[in-house]
Task: structure prediction
Amino acid sequence: MSGTFLGMPEMTTAPRGVGHLRGDRSFPDAARGAVADAQLRHNLAHATGTIRAKRERVVAEVDDWEQLRLAGAAVKAATMARLDEHLERLEREVTARGGVVHWARDAHEANRVVTDLVRATGEREVVKVKSMATQEIGLNEALADAGIEALETDLAELIVQLGHDRPSHILVPAIHRNRAEIRDIFLREMPGVDPGLTDEPRVLAEQARRHLRARFLSARVGVSGANFAVADTGTCLVVESEGNGRMCLTLPDTLITVMGIEKVVPSYRDLEVMLQLLPRSSTGERMNPYTSAWTGVTPGDGPGAFHLVLLDNGRTAALADRTGREALHCIRCSACLNVCPVYERTGGHAYGSVYPGPIGAVLSPQLTGVEDNASLPYASSLCGACFDACPVRIDIPNLLVDLRRRHVDEVSAASRVPSAEAVAMAAAAWTMGDAGRWRRAGRAGRLGRLLGRRRGRIGSLPPPLSAWTTSRDLPQPPAETFRDWWARTRPAESDVSATPRRGGPTDTSLSGQARPRGDGS
Amino acid sequence: MRIGLFVTCLGDTMFPRVGQATVRLLERLGHEVVFPADQTCCGQMHVNTGYQRQALALVRRHTEAFADCEVVVAPSGSCVGCVRHQHRTVAQRYGDDGLVAATEESARRTYELSELLVDVLGVEDVGASFPHRVTYHPTCHSLRLLRVGDKPLRLLRQVRNLELVELPAADECCGFGGTFALKNADTSTAMLADKMRHVLGTGADVLTAGDSSCLMQIGGGLSRLRTGTRTLHLAEILASPADDRVPA
Amino acid sequence: MSAREDVLGRIRSANRAAGVDTEPVPVVPRDYAATGGLAAGSVEVLDLLEDRLVDYRATVRRCAGADVADTVRAALDDAVGVVGEHAGRVRTVVVPPGLPPDWVPGAVVDDGTRTAPDLDLVDAVVTAATVAAAVTGTIVLDGSPDQGRRAISLVPDVHVCVLRAAQVVHSVPEMLARLEPTRPTTFVSGPSATSDIELERVEGVHGPRTLSVVLVTPSTSGPPVT
Result:
């Protein structure tokens, strides 16, 4: 049901119990195990460090990079502003060229539509191009429930599938696996594998090629996502490196493409911006090896049947927030993941969603509703590296702070009893709300000097501040706050008068306290 | 010039030396420093933890406390970042048009220390002397939000007898992030460990930065490991008199 | 209510809630470079393209218009399969129906009936192209008669692509401006590759593992004729 007569939009988020947008542990809990996993840390540091360097090099080549970013951000904002019109136009154009457009309110509906379409062909297996949207909705599981096998053809997705695992990165989903682990997975799970398989990437890739080629050549149904869909021409695009996309988009009789509604762009010309921003931001290349663009059905070239499934699944909930909607501008490049110091140390699984890292921390909670991913907006030190890397200038730190606000408001609305944190924050605000109270509180802080009196530092505090002292010291609080020192040494100026001060310079002594020298003023 | 000192809540209560050094430095350069006593906190902690509504009173207090100051300086990139980029948002969401305008004016007048020295006062040689091996960590807010660029390094290069060593992977976050350091202590510590590794690798006696919060994080780790390497705020180095002692 | 009406209704409600429906649509600033600066078909732009193609480990040969057939033959002769089933000399070649017939004498002309398994038995394909962007080393095929349906330039392991100098532009915007959007289009920027294993780039996963480009330049040293 759409909005009621009161004009209040219904916040329809991605439903629970389907798909992979929610983890089973909070981020801090999941991260604890991840940062202790030396193999994972090593893989991530190597991988993200490599892509960072490549990205910097190729971005530095582009003199008009900032102008492209501004254009990309505006294209996305303009798209969202009239999203309904662009989707209607896209539907008209695709339909006019022989394609069929389906709409899916949520993951359940999308899975049902795709399953029914596959059933209608009589086939019991499909080949898949990597698609974050299909991961998001849990399509493979839904197809399996219907007795349909979905074969992932992207090398990384294949590794994840054979390893009975989950993707941990938007672009390189098996980044958490090193070559030896991949070889072991192939040896264990790949039928007809060469028992002498080494762990050289070249050999592993060749093994995957052989495994998949026979399937490509006989596949009747392909399932893909889409990086972009152009409204004014009805053109869909898949941007890829390996060629499995071309295989799945071209060889089968039937192609089913599942695409988030936010992926539409208004005009073909907008691609000149996006196709410059995406490859350099994602794999650090000037251009990815293969991009395929198709419009509806072309007789004699490619599938005779094309279905485009437009997916909401919480996107309209994100769209309804004036600040948060910017997260929908994401073009899934993963540049933010690769520069994030938190992601580099925890990996993607800790976020619990197929969209991890900085963009995941602002997109996943909006798709699911903040409370189902409440710890994600806090999984950031707000360092801002993600904003600098984002090709479409999504202000992720700003979105994170805003989602924290929304979380606090929801928590407070949900319970009559304020949380301990809310009480502490209210007390702090009250103390800081008056200069006199604040001055007295500052003096009371000197009691902390008792804790550190023996060593000049504080090594241990009770919870919740123990979270600090488990790994860090705190300095001893000073004997005198700044304002007390100022009031004591410059009494004539304590009221911020215009008279110049008198007296000598202050001294910063070895004990770290300020003591005046000279005339004692 | 008459300069209002925004000492920050952390500076006021935990690191008064930093405010004192800022005063000493600016007075040595011939300027008048005033300290509006009504100031308490810019509200950054509340805003970043999700308590924007509670920050409204703090935003109002801050803009009123400094209303008479043509120029305001804070020895803190993150606090200046809050004033410049977050006060208006809070005012717009919870305040009124008058407050919105006041925050815009306040944002225009508020500078981080290195910005004030280089851009407003036009000075890079502040007459300091600090004969020690020093490495500099560019804090995230000063680097990415304020974009102070290399101003702190230009100032440090003019300090007599100071041996400046480049910090590897300098622009990586130290892991403080406010309440992040508590809520995600494991990840914060992992980030801190890498930052400390880079600092110790430089062989520097002193790590400096423009934010006491980051120095508390890095210094807390260096202290826990008894490394002997100390932290000093940029203001303390720039205010240094010609004397050999490294303040503890 | 249909899913279509529901989703469209939600979008409209959402944009109302965000206060965006009454505001003017953001204008897209197009201050980025519309052209690269080098003229299409110029010596500099061809050199740039060759540099990029070589960087992607495609082979590049240049020839005059009269020598296309010989050069294509040389490219086919040199293109041995990388590993496995296509190692050795190229024997069967498929070409699209609109390719000049004298370019590859003895080639099989695709009539659209060959299945994917049929094409798998073909050693090589020779096509023309629509346009190329030098800055990225991208060559575009769009299903025109001299390029053929997508399957024939996908399944064989060797792809020889004949590109005319005048078809080479500098930048991505210029490349897109020359395309008909609704044609089934393939942008090729080097042989297929994956970096999914420890981010180490490995070439030749799916798609032709050998890409060989024949660049047809005007035989005189004067400016190119478009």
Observations:
- The longest helix of chain C spans residues 3-17.
- The CA atoms of residues 74 and 171 of chain C lie 30 Å apart.
